[in-house]
Amino acid sequence: MMATDNALLFIGHILLVNHQVNFLAEIIMHIRTKLVSAIALLCATQAALADNFLTTVTLGGITRSLGFASFDDAIKAANHPENYQALFPGVKSTVGANIIMDFKGLPIEFHKVSATNVIVTIPGLGVKESVVVSSSGVVSGSLRKQLDTKVENLVRSYNAAINKQLAKVDSADPIGGNPSSLMGIMVENAYLLGTTDDWSTGSTKKAARANRFDGGVRYGHYDLSGKSVDTFTMPLSYTFKLDDRQQIIVSAPFTYIDTQGAQSYDGGAGFAYKYRMNSKWVLTPAVAYSLRGSFDLADAGHVASGTLTSKYTFDLESLDPNSLKLTVGNMAGYYTTLPFTIKGYSVDPNLQNYIIKNGLSLSKNVNGDYYGHKLNVAANFTDTEYFGSHFFVDQYNELGISIKAVNDQHWLSALSLAGNYLFSATGKDVSGYRVSLTYQF
Fold first, then answer.
1. Based on the domain organization, do 281 and 147 belong to the same domain?
2. Average pLDDT, the chain
């Protein structure tokens, strides 16, 4: 009898422990579900604050916003709202989900009619198409992948029209307009090349010297209507000196761009002919080509340009090379995107612009010897205007200062440090700054 009672007592104890374990497991699972939902919601909210792509998902009467730095992540969210079901408690199916992806200012809508049917709408382009994959009733992983591919291919088939529209609505458009765009950086490179030469510090005549290499680094930070962009440019060039009046310059600039965590790269080549008309006036016609690509932003394009830059210097005090001088820089250029396709789809927005950049620089040589170099200090102002294809940012100004150390006889013939503040006079929320360190030898 004692043994039976002990056995029953042991079995009861086991059942009690098992019940407690199950109850504890249920509590842990409940806490885990709530924690996952909270973390997902927190990450989505934080990501949506400042990202390149904002995806809004409405499902079961609940709306959530998800922010992404890259297009790839955003299109995955649009195709697979089921990955975020933790944000939609009590919802068992993602059929009927409505997804609006803010493609850098251009909305693209996705309505999930069924597991094999998605309706894609691009209101800004008047596009509304149904994407369907055939099914025998069983929705497999391969069918989902086919649907994903068809949806992405449909969006990509409108790449050219989307990119042209983005130039109008995207404050940080990678190709044109703003100072961080491909055209913007090309304009800056061309203007600096046309207004910088051996005659910048006041000498009226110099003997023909050895060829020269120019290099350096230029960093820019821009706040473009809520978007933050950082650029790093290496404006490399080599100058062939033909005589006292003529130079040929070959350039190969490279730029890295970070747009709120999305990476872009551009590189190109240019050719310029610099001719000194007289002791005060220098003309520089130039041609350039540059290419930019970004997997993160789903953007790619290339631009060709032709420019003519005039630099005229006035002696404000005397003909002394160390006198106060006013330099007027004027550049006119034509910039156009070129035909471009990726995986059979055109991405050319067909942008064509006439760009004018005018500037004033007040400079003076500083008396004294600084480690074998003389110093030239300058303050400058520039205005940049875009005419032609419409851009969100089509005008901006810059105020800057520079200090340049020069010694024609030294192996390091020039070293320059410059800083600029940028703003727009059109009422657009555009500002930024740029610092640069350049050298010649």
1. no
2. 83
